[in-house]
Design goal:
Chains A, B, C, D: This is Four-helix bundle copper-binding protein. Chains A, B, C, D: InterPro entries: Csp_YhjQ (IPR005560), YHJQ-like (IPR044543). Chains A, B, C, D: It holds the Pfam family Csp. The structure is a homotetramer. By secondary structure, chain A is an all-alpha fold. Chain A is 75% helix and 0% strand. Chain A has 5 helices and no strands. In chain A, helix 2 runs antiparallel to helix 5, helix 3 packs antiparallel against helix 4 and helix 4 packs antiparallel against helix 5. Chains A and C meet through helix 1, helix 2, helix 3 and helix 5 of A and helix 1, helix 2, helix 3 and helix 5 of C.
């Protein structure tokens, strides 16, 4: 069982009406995507064609930042605020979509963009699933 | 002239149609609010009535995280994506509003909540002003 | 294979003399520990005895922040700087040790502190192993 | 009076033996440097010679991350841990020094690297001053 799952199990109060499984999946997807985007930005920096990848690097950095924030907000349950959670998730959907689209455009040439695009799509779906269940 | 302002002045390409003054104000408000919320969460932790401030602490932490992310996204201009910028700003407006409301409820008792609520309101307005100008 | 591992495999240049397996383990431990500490701070906030857990919450927050930074620094390989990597890892060892010690003191009463202390110990060891191999 | 200064003034307990003025200066320098490094990484991305600036971008990103973490750790006073504070400050000194050196090498060609190098030097000195006073 993952640490994120164990942390949900040991939270001392009720998690509210949230879908625990969708929440766990979304937390894990956010942290995974944050790491992938950070690494993809750096891998793009080390490509010989870095000059053609500057928009990809920038989108990677934005997506890493928003995924980190979303992963942290979702890891907190005290004083839950549905409007705040929804707004943060929507920003994350947008960031993941933008980054997945950008990485997909280079996925056939750069393996890191392929791996990163998949992580972004998983995170986008996990955020959307969680929004739909709120 | 602030460092954020100098960094805007030395950006090597065109900033696009963005309102430079609103952008600068918003970047500075995000970093200021992120610091204030981090400090307010900690100040609440040190209050004797911490048990009554747990929702405030949680909202402070969420707001600090979203403001940091927004401040970073706004500090980047390469490959600008209006949809992503707008979604991140909207999440920040929501986080600042939630935190300002929460801190305002304790502002008469706790000086740090008063200072933090004002920083959140400034950041909320700066983000909304920037959204309106996009 | 984890996404962090796939990102290392698709990095386009040489990773230098680094021990790839220790690096992967350390990146994953940093992100896992960052999430656990964020969740543990929040779980402590929701305990009835929150007033006795304020130092634990503060140490959780510091450890989460330093683990995030360390996880990001280790996810970058372009223009590697051994002195910077070592200093960041040493700060992470210190943060993880402080947080593990603090959480261990409450581990028998609070399941989240038990899970978090273990994540901190794993991360402390992974950082120390990587330092020793540099 | 800055918001960081107001937050220190409204902290409800004793700040311990810390030099309040050095602490305030260091908190402000960390946030300022984090912003400058984030913006400098992006400005480098938009330079025609981006291929020659990849190490600079990477160091900017590391420095931004470590400065953010240091600024947050210093904004907390509850349950102060001198060893943790010192280790985080030392990592920040190292990150600022590396980034200032890297940016200085391009300061005559790129105005953003000049502004960023100065922000890094100020932050390096503020962190070292605070370490010396602990």
């Amino acid at each position: 069982m993952s640490v994120a799952s164990q942390m949900l199990d040991t939270y001392p109060k009720d998690l509210g009406g949230v879908d625990r499984e969708k929440l766990r999946a979304c937390i894990e997807a956010c942290y995974e995507c944050a790491q992938a985007c950070t690494a993809c930005a750096d891998a793009c920096l080390s490509e010989d064609q870095v000059a053609e990848l500057t928009k990809c690097i920038r989108t990677n950095l934005d997506c890493a930042d928003q995924c980190e924030t979303t992963g942290k907000v979702l890891s907190r349950h005290t004083g839950y605020d549905a409007n705040l959670t929804r707004a943060v998730l929507q920003a994350c959907v947008q960031a993941c979509k933008a980054c997945a689209d950008e990485c997909d455009a280079h996925a056939s040439e750069h393996g890191h963009c392929h791996v990163c695009a998949e992580a972004c799509r998983r995170c986008e779906r996990a955020c959307q699933d969680l929004i739909d269940s709120l």
